Amino acid sequence: MGAVGTMTGAPAGAGGAGSGAAGAAVAGMGGPLAGAASGAAGAARPAPLRVDAQRNLEHVLRAAREVFGELGYGAPMEDVARRARVGVGTVYRRFPSKDVLVRRIAQEETARLTDQARAALGQEDEPWSALARFLRTSVASGAGRLLPPQVLRVGVDVEEVPAADDARVPRQRGAVPSGSPRTVAPRGVPAAELDGAGVPELLDVVGRLVGRAREAGELRRDVTVGDVLLVIATAAPSLPDAAQQSAASARLLDILLEGLRSRP
């Protein structure tokens, strides 16, 4: 992440004078030795974080997952610092802006969902079972509460078209026959937003799960990848009691799965 790179960059810069002196001394010797030393210095990597700094970073990331999972990405950095039991300055030293921290958490959650989708594809032969397994695993992990916002916007923004009675009602693409007064247009999410968070990989793998279940006649024809990701986000409520939250998530997901299945 850029934030971590910024942190490690400062010590490297501070040591620049010493490195330059050493390089000059070696250069004074002349010959191949100077060139070798110069190449080694150029290939040097930033020093790893100290043990206490690494521990603080882990605390901040864990706290951010909890706080954003409970309150959403709108939660202030002060709440993250308080949960991590560090000063807010420590959080900002690791992540110079809230956007950087949000991007880090979103990337990690996107990668986790992608792994879960791949596991479902590889371990379940039956299309509906694979899709249901992915949804259950993802909801149980709580990843839905931390999905990158741009994922939930893919293909679900609404273009309103007036009906005969001038009613304006949004719908998902393909939900009703052509000619209906309700249509939806996919939103043009900037490519940088999608690529930066690992979203294309997630959409590709989930798309394969959706495609298989649809071709098998087990998934409603109008269900999109965006719908499936929305189910993950919807079925992961944040409740104060862990047991109540688990039971509520399981019950809600059962209802949503029934809504996704095709009917004879």
From TrEMBL:
Feature: DNA-binding region: 76-95
Stretches with biased composition (Gly residues): 12-21
Keyword Heme: no
Biased composition (Low complexity): 1-11
Region (Disordered): 1-23
Residues spanning the signal sequence: none
SUPFAM superfamilies assigned: Homeodomain-like, Tetracyclin repressor-like, C-terminal domain
Domain HTH tetR-type: 54-113
Source superkingdom: Bacteria
Name of protein: HTH tetR-type domain-containing protein
Pfam families reported for this sequence: TetR_C_43, TetR_N
Keywords: DNA-binding, Transcription, Transcription regulation
Species whose genome carries this gene: Streptomyces fradiae ATCC 10745 = DSM 40063
